[in-house]
Specification:
Elements: E1 2-4, E2 8-9, E3 12-13, E4 36-39, E5 47-54, H1 57-61, E6 66-74, E7 78-79, H2 83-86, E8 91-92, H3 107-110, E9 123-132, H4 144-151, E10 155-165
InterPro entries: PEBP, PEBP-like_sf, YbhB_YbcL/LppC-like
Organism: Weissella coleopterorum
Protein name: YbhB/YbcL family Raf kinase inhibitor-like protein
Length: 169
């Protein structure tokens, strides 16, 4: 399995997908989500799940990675750009902006794509996609641990895509 994205140029996510975009929610969190395409999927896939995260955030947050987007029950191998705000083709989990140690956004607002705003330097972002042999019993607003609990024993294969986003001031 392989993941591609037209949202990446020269190893960087385009500005529209993060803090250099004009698409922000009321808490100034970027909302315009990245596109992705899943290629070469194995047989038996019933759905996909995906997590977009920033390991470089650990230095900035002083203790945890930043989860930007969590989605599950995607039954087609493609997600269009900005689908987080409009699509009903998948369910979305809570991103890190819900944390009281971060932006403390309400659960509904945080259950969408929360774009990249790296501090201090350009950050590396990882999009990890899981091919699953089932549809998960999740509703929008689920937490990351609930996703992992339900995926256990159902992961056929995984793939990841890594790209950077330029520093946000």
């Amino acid at each position: 399995m392989k993941i591609t994205s037209t949202g990446i140029e020269n190893g960087y996510f385009k500005d529209i997908f993060g803090g250099h975009s004009r698409y922000m929610n009321e808490n100034q969190m970027p909302t315009y989500s990245i596109p992705l395409k899943i290629l070469d999927t194995p047989q038996g896939v019933q759905s996909y799940a995906a997590v977009l995260y920033d390991l470089d955030a650990y230095e900035v947050t002083k203790g945890f990675i930043w989860i930007h987007w969590v989605l599950a029950n995607l039954t087609m191998p493609e997600v269009l750009e900005n689908a987080s705000q409009t699509s009903v083709a998948f369910v979305q989990g809570v991103n890190s902006s819900h944390s009281p140690m971060a932006y403390n956004q309400d659960k509904g607002t945080a259950s969408h794509y929360g774009g990249m705003k790296p501090r201090g330097r350009d950050h590396n972002y990882v999009l990890k996609v899981y091919a699953l042999d089932t549809i998960l019993d999740l509703e929008s607003g689920f937490y990351l641990n609930q996703l992992y609990d339900q995926m256990e024993e159902h992961i056929i294969t995984t793939a990841k895509l890594t790209a950077k986003y330029r520093q946000y001031h």
